Amino acid sequence: MFEYAPAPESVRPQIKEHYGIFIDGEFVDAESDFKSVNPATEEVLFTVAEAGEADVAKAVAAARRAYETVWGPMSGTERGKYLFRIARLLQERAREFAVAESLDNGKPIKETRDFDVPTAAQHFFYHAGWADKLAYAGHGGDPKPLGVVGQVIPWNFPLLMLAWKIAPALACGNTVVLKPAETTPLTALMFAELCQEADLPPGVVNILPGAGAAGAAVVGSAVDKVAFTGSTAVGRAIAKAVAGSKKKVTLELGGKAANIVFDDAPIDQAVEGIVNGIFFNQGHVCCAGSRLLVQESVADDVLERLKERVATLRVGDPLDKNTDIGAINSAEQLERITALTEAGRGEGADVWQPACDLPEQGFWFRPTVFTGVQQSMRIAQEEIFGPVLSVLTFRTPDEAIAKANNTPYGLSAGVWTEKGSKILWAAERLRAGVVWANTFNKFDAASPFGGLKESGYGREGGRQGLEAYLDV
Ligand code: NDP
After folding, report:
1. Measured between alpha carbons, how far is residue 253 from residues 119, 136, 216, 229, 452 in Å?
2. Which of 204, 255, 413, 441 could form a disulfide with 432 if both were Cys (CB 3.0 to 4.6 A apart)?
3. For atom 35 of ligand 1, which residue has the closest CA?
């Protein structure tokens, strides 16, 4: 194997020492601040004002004003122009956003550069196109916006989740109040600057950094709709909090996806898909293929090739263009991953990790493969949200489906086989919002995404995703 020389990314974004809350088109200070840390080095990147209940109320009032006086009455064609402008500015500043995201989140630069930022821009381009065509989206001839939308997003794809939430909301004529995750507010704050640069009318987008309490305040405020992505536990709390109110809700929650490899699958291709399925973004992916279900007759072969491939993954500096697996986003998340991995060992599964050096500073976890996994084990049922794969085997297609569906979640699944008929047969039976065939973790703004069962409800993206932001 070749030894790679380090190839560090040279662009450095202009990160301010301190950011305020973004309300009504301006950055303002709050009663308290918190720090954002680079998870790869544990260095403080910047401080940021923490939104309290009063700030949330101010932001919602600003968003309401903007909705009633500017954004709501504006024609779709004009709204579309703003969205196109935002998309283009994101493209222009793509490199800077990519580096900032890697610094604040810990994910590898090749992912932020090639996936997060371009896909975020794509969401704005795609929804800019819908802004003046909503009457043809299949949600009635004269669809109306909902009003002010409260949005709470997680730390695993900070900018992309922002784009998933803000682009359709604005395209449909709503204004937004968005709370980024406590550990990753940077690109949301840079996005707020970008809104200023795009001359977006004040109050249309408000960004409220803070912790869980700020999220709860957004949910409890006078918004017309709540859109949340995050853990099932918090999603449940949000569903309870809004029950009985007129607020519309969409919840995109956890997952424990099965990636099913049948014995007729192209094995090398499947191995790449397994690796991408679970090690992309350190496994911090709600739709990660965290359970590999492999047909018994090819299991030894698949596992051997999989371990050989995983041993080549490079763990380390997120800003090195060679890095495959970056830092775990926070000490808390590292603790959760470690605890669940220990639970797997304790329950008797066999653990395998490649020999690789980890940096001394920062939060790191080796890519991990569990074999001998039983369905009842916690590592087969619970979302680990880290680079940890649980491998189970099956003998017949029916057994594969039964095992795949045997979790409380239903977000995504993968099927690997050379037979189209088997793909369709499996897709019909898998209880998952998204099923990938002979690929994994593929996303497109035109393709709706969302879950079944405890993975939540509502769709994001595509024509279907517009419904969540329209009064239909
Ligand atoms: P959370 O669900 O707690 O975080 C998601 C967002 O919700 C964050 O912005 C968070 O703020 C906010 N939040 C927290 N509590 C509340 C509340 N009561 N009301 C409203 N908003 C709230 O996820 P965690 O970051 O705590 O991660 C825990 C686990 O959740 C992970 O290990 C993983 O299994 C799962 N997870 C799943 C995700 C997915 O996409 N499916 C995404 C993230 C996590 P703050 O950042 O301050 O906590």
Report:
1. 20, 29, 16, 6, 10
2. 413
3. 231
105 lines ligand 1 (CB under 6 A): no
Q: Ligand 1 pocket, 216 CB below 6 A?
A: yes
Which token pair is 326? 């970056």
- The answer to whether 17 is a known catalytic residue is no
The answer to whether the CB of 217 is under 6 A from ligand 1 is no
The alpha carbon of 231 and the centre of ligand 1 are apart by a number of angstroms equal to: 5
Is residue 389 within 8 A of residue 370, CB to CB? The reply is yes
Using an 8 Å Cβ cutoff, are 145 and 466 in contact?
no
Q: What is the pLDDT along the chain (472 residues), one digit of tens a residue?
A: 667 888 999 888 889 999 999 999 999 999 999 999 999 999 999 999 999 999 999 999 999 999 999 999 999 999 999 999 999 999 999 999 999 999 999 999 999 999 999 999 999 999 999 999 999 999 999 999 999 999 999 999 999 999 999 999 999 999 999 999 999 999 999 999 999 999 999 999 999 999 999 999 999 999 999 999 999 999 999 999 999 999 999 999 999 999 999 999 999 999 999 999 999 999 999 999 999 999 999 999 999 999 999 999 999 999 999 999 999 999 999 999 999 999 999 999 999 999 989 999 999 999 999 999 999 999 999 999 999 999 999 999 999 999 999 999 999 999 999 999 999 999 999 999 999 999 999 999 999 999 999 999 999 999 999 999 999 8
Q: Is the CB of 317 under 6 A from ligand 1?
A: no
Any atom of ligand 1 within 6 Å of the Cβ of 229? yes
Cα of 250 vs its chain's centroid, Å: 15
Atom of ligand 1 nearest to the CA of 333: 32
Catalytic residue among 9, 50, 252, 382: 252
Residues in the chain: 472
Distance CA 445, CA 429 (A): 25
The residue whose CA is least distant from atom 48 of ligand 1 is 212
**Any catalytic annotation for residue 172?**
no
The per-residue b/e assignment along 431-456, b for 16 or more CB within 10 angstroms, e otherwise, is bbbbbbbbebbebebeebbbbbbbbb
Given 9, 111, 182, 286, which residue is catalytic?
286
Closest ligand 1 atom to residue 386 Cα is 32
Nearest ligand 1 atom to alpha carbon 383: 34
Tell me whether strands 18-19 and 44-50 are parallel, antiparallel or unpaired: parallel
Residue with tokens 């803070």: 210
